């Protein structure tokens, strides 16, 4: 297995994962490409792919920021997804392990994420990995 940092040349692959993760959204590909480029350019963001046997098996994106809640720098995992046919093979764990190492390397005091209510399989993975349910996630869409 190999971790490869995302590049602009990988955008089509990343976009495919983004669409699979949030199926309730309609995405404008050019708008998402601009966001993706900003992620790649921001030192507080990370994005990477997991390869195994020459094939992309998953994608992860997150960001670091300071928070009073965790008394320091935190890592927010915004996107983590493995291929549906590859679930249960350890790829999700490998993705999360790498995100965790990145967070530890820069001194984060915590990692957190949110997950759609219907994603019960993902919730089991987060529970097994060691995440604890600690909050509800709310959103307010802005014009």
TrEMBL record:
<dbReference type="InterPro" id="IPR016181">
    <property type="entry name" value="Acyl_CoA_acyltransferase"/>
</dbReference>
<protein>
    <recommendedName>
        <fullName>N-acetyltransferase domain-containing protein</fullName>
    </recommendedName>
</protein>
<feature type="domain" description="N-acetyltransferase">
    <location>
        <begin position="1"/>
        <end position="143"/>
    </location>
</feature>
<dbReference type="Pfam" id="PF00583">
    <property type="entry name" value="Acetyltransf_1"/>
</dbReference>
<dbReference type="InterPro" id="IPR000182">
    <property type="entry name" value="GNAT_dom"/>
</dbReference>
